[in-house]
Amino acid sequence: NQPNVDEKRTVVKSNYLPIREHIRTIIEEKKSNLCLSADLTNLDEIIELSKQVGDYICLLKIHCDILNDFTMEKIRQLKTISKEKNFLLFEDRKFADIGNTVSLQYTKGLSQICEWADLVTVHALPGDGILKALEESSKEVGEPRGCFLLAQMSSKGALTDEKYVKATVQYAEKYQNFVIGFIAQSRLSTSSNIDYIHCTPGVHINSSEDKFGQQYISPAEAVLQRGADVIICGRAILESNDRVQTAKLYQTEGYKAYQQKRQ
Ligand code: 5BU
Fold it and tell me: Can you tell me which residues bind substrate (predicted)?
């Protein structure tokens, strides 16, 4: 006998913190505000990497549509590791379609994202029906789910101007249970006192850009000047000579700044 959806939700409430609080707790407990952006094309490799660096990160972000060997069995293995090592799984899907379509993209297809991704990214561009649809779909699984709204992008020439950012924040306030924070390049002013989690990608200590318009800042700049809670690092770690040591370095740099900011 399967528990019905309402029974599942009751179980969730007793077992899990709300997701925004959960991330803050992980950051404090593990002394890490590092999100590893594991932009690799092989899920087996991500699984191995997550065992090695899982202790040093609060979030693991992937792009499941670049994986050559995606299977639900493998993604469940990654999920098990995320629970053992206490980090959340984050699919950077950047949903951007009408509500009905995104809800299908979220729950169906080969990757069934909603089943395993604690967090996803969402564009505000289509209007707030996108959030209504994703939030509704997320309630069908027996675990808390949340999203980050994309407010500002790190790439050169991004069209996310002030007016766009303002409207994005308003959508976040309207769906404040599901929208747990923003992907942003600055601290956004909101009209409520909700402690939205700000994540900043485009973080690298040794580089200022890539050849396709990605723009980098240091962990300290991201946290102290731009107001990030979480730093998102991909190639800075993935392309280093020692991924584990480099992850530890970004963990240390990121958390030092996080503590300084919250004092
Ligand atoms: P990098 O290797 O650290 O440059 O990778 C950055 C990651 O963050 C990559 O997965 C991007 O898709 C993601 N990203 C970004 O770089 N900038 C943005 O504004 C957003 C996401 Br939104």
Answer: 39, 61, 154, 214, 234-235
Identity of residue 239:
E
User: Structure pTM?
Assistant: 0.94
Q: Which residues contact 42 (CB under 8 A, 6 or more apart)?
A: 67, 68, 69
Question: How is residue 227 written in tokens?
Answer: 């107001």
Query: Residue 235: CB within 6 Å of ligand 1?
Result: yes
Could you write out the DSSP letters of every residue in 207-226? Answer: -SB-TTSBB-B-HHIIIIIT
92 is catalytic: yes
214 is in an annotated binding site: yes
Q: How far apart are the first and last CA of the chain?
A: 50
DSSP β-bridge partners for residue 124: none
Q: What is the pLDDT of residues 191-211, one digit of tens each?
A: 888 999 999 999 999 999 999
**Dihedral of the alpha carbons of 28, 31, 33, 34, in degrees to the nearest 10:** -150
ipTM above 0.90, yes or no: yes
Q: Choosing from 8, 97, 132, 248, which is the catalytic residue? A: 97
